[in-house]
Amino acid sequence: MEHQEETLLKVEHLCQYFKMGPGRELKAVDDVSFDIKKGEVFGLVGESGCGKTTTGRSIIKLYDITSGNVYFKGQRICAGTRSYKEAIRAARTAYREKIAALDKQKKEEIEQGADRAQAEELNKKLRTEAEEQYRTAVLENRKLIASAKHDQKFCDKDHAEKVVASFKEEREKALAACSSDEERKKVEKDYKTRLRVASHERIVNRIQMIFQDPIASLNPRMTVRDIIAEGLIIHGIKDKDYIDEKVYNILEKVGLVREHAGRYPHEFSGGQRQRIGIARSVIMEPELIIADEPVSALDVSIQAQVINLLNDLRSELGITVLFIAHDLSVVKYFSDRIGVMYFGKMVELAPSDELFAHPLHPYTRSLLSAIPLPDPQYEKQRRRITYNPLAEHDYSVEGPTMREITPGHFIYCNGAEFEKYKEELGL
Question: What domains lie within the chain, and their CATH numbers?
Answer without folding.
Answer: 1-73+289-427 (3.40.50.300), 217-286 (no CATH)
